[in-house]
Amino acid sequence: MNKVMLVTGASRGIGAEIALLAGRSGYRVGVNYLHSADAAQAVVARIRQQGGEAVALQADVSQLEQVVTLFQQLDVAFGAPDVLVNNAGVLANFRVDAVDAHNVVDVFSANVFSAYYCAREAVRRMSTAHGGKGGVIINLSSVASRLGGLGGGAAYAASKAAIDTFTLALAKEVGLEGIRVNAIRPGLISTDIHEIHGGIAKMEQMAKSAVPLGRAGAASEVASVALWLASDSASYVHGSVIDVAGGR
Q1: Who is most buried in 24, 51, 71, 124, counting CB within 10 A?
Q2: Helices (H), ranges, the chain
Q3: Strand order of the sheet with strand 4-7?
Q4: Helix 13-24 crosses helix 37-49 at what angle (to 10 degrees)?
């Protein structure tokens, strides 16, 4: 039976490309989304058109009770995940002196708490200590974690630094229980998430001078690294944070 991969925030951008490549690679794919039902169903349809299996699963992964339900729905559809990709997240554009009781909490809820909650449910199913057969967890970070991000991006950069450290800590916790844990740090990738900073065209222009390779990356290039990390070819890669950033 084919392995199962759950990708959070998979209706568009990097998450969608990971889900599509996973489907082409033989995984049964859980396509999580929050608001974009039509986009998620389009990803599912493309996977099925390619002969794969996929299901769209709505959940706000920043909320623990919804994450529990999400994993229960995946259990019914395909069984426990062999691979979890914690991709869901948001950008932010506000200065520290504009922090209020909600905006910084929203960023950390979407980018950090979601990874903890989903990892909790995945470990409970994957860990040999819980009767599981092992698995792989891949967290999506960002080069902002080491560069500080763009103007107004302090909260985003800090949240991604938390993901880097969470990845290393979780790897130490569950490595002896059959679970490999790694992270990917994308750089400037051409996706619509950059609308908050002026759009894809502005970001791609900036990449010409800011990125040593002289261009922005494609979501498919990040997806290829994710599928490699999920595979047996990366069987001794654990606790690593891999930059996919064109040298930036």
Answers
A1: 71
A2: 13-24, 37-49, 64-77, 103-108, 114-126, 144-147, 154-174, 200-210, 219-230
A3: 53-58, 28-33, 4-7, 83-86, 135-140, 179-186, 241-244
A4: 20
Query: Which member of 116, 117, 156, 236 is catalytic?
Result: 156
Unique residue bearing structure tokens 């880097």: 164
Q: What is the SS3 assignment for 65?
A: helix
Is 27 known to be catalytic? no
Which CATH number applies to 4-244? 3.40.50.720
Model pTM greater than 0.90? yes
Per the DSSP assignment, residues forming a β-bridge with 180 are 136
- Can you give the pLDDT of all 248 residues of the chain as single tens digits? 699 999 999 999 999 999 999 999 999 999 999 999 999 999 999 999 999 999 999 999 999 999 999 999 999 999 999 999 999 999 888 899 999 989 999 999 999 999 999 999 999 999 999 999 999 999 999 999 999 887 788 999 999 999 999 999 999 999 999 999 999 999 988 876 655 555 667 767 777 778 888 888 999 999 999 999 999 999 999 999 999 999 88
81 SS3 class? coil
Whether residue 19 contacts residue 222, with contact meaning beta carbons closer than 8 Å, is answered with: no
Integer angstrom CA distances of residue 186 from 120, 140, 142, 174:
24, 8, 5, 24
CB atoms within 10 A of CB 235: 9
Q: Tokens 């426990």 appear where? A: 80
User: If DSSP states are collapsed to H, E and C, what string results for 128-171?
Assistant: HHHCCCCEEEEEECCCHHHHCCCCCCHHHHHHHHHHHHHHHHHH
Backbone angles phi, psi at 242, to 5 degrees: -105, 125
In single-letter form, the type of residue at position 177 comes to E
Token duo for residue 91: 């950008």
